[in-house]
């Protein structure tokens, strides 16, 4: 990666309770097995002699429900957007607190996508069929624009690949009726 960190064994996920978890699957041996506390002096615990790896690096409250999207930034290494409920948050994988928390949306968010060509542009799909286009290089208190992406709830969205001389950027959205827009 551009920042010199080998991220092949890093895992960022969200629990059913809405917590975001960052783990390193190559973790070095840590404390007692299972992350429990060590045995008190005088107590025998045969397992305490074998240190087990601490895979979970950090865990933090993220959303009230599981995130519907964990999106790594294509331009900023180690930056991830988590989308869920009525807001999105930006996380550095090295920190257990978000670096940015968006204001609440007018409708529940259902997905998202980073712009593949412009740093700081994040598109968040909503259950009312609209898309909030955030230009974080210009404003962080409101979306730069709200687009009508589908007549019903957007369930998926993805930018089509761009080619070197292509000037047009296309965003495909799918709705809960199975239509592609």
What does this structure look like?
With 181 residues, this protein is mainly beta. The protein contains no helices and 13 strands. Strand 4 and strand 5 (79-84) form a beta hairpin. The model is unreliable at 31-46 (pLDDT under 50).
Quick synopsis:
With 181 residues, the chain is mainly β. It is 0% helix and 38% strand.
Number of strands: 13
Low-confidence stretches: 31-46
Largest beta-sheet details:
4 strands, antiparallel
Strand line-up of the largest beta sheet: 4-5-6-7
Total number of helical segments? 0
The helix/strand class is mainly beta
Helix percentage range: under 10%
Global shape: globular
Features:
four-stranded antiparallel β-sheet, 13 strands, single chain, 181 residues, mainly beta
SSE order and pairing:
Elements: E1 10-14, E2 19-24, E3 56-61, E4 69-72, E5 79-84, E6 87-92, E7 100-101, E8 109-114, E9 121-126, E10 130-135, E11 145-148, E12 154-159, E13 171-175
Antiparallel strand pairs: 1-2, 2-3, 4-5, 5-6, 6-7, 8-9, 9-10, 10-11, 12-13
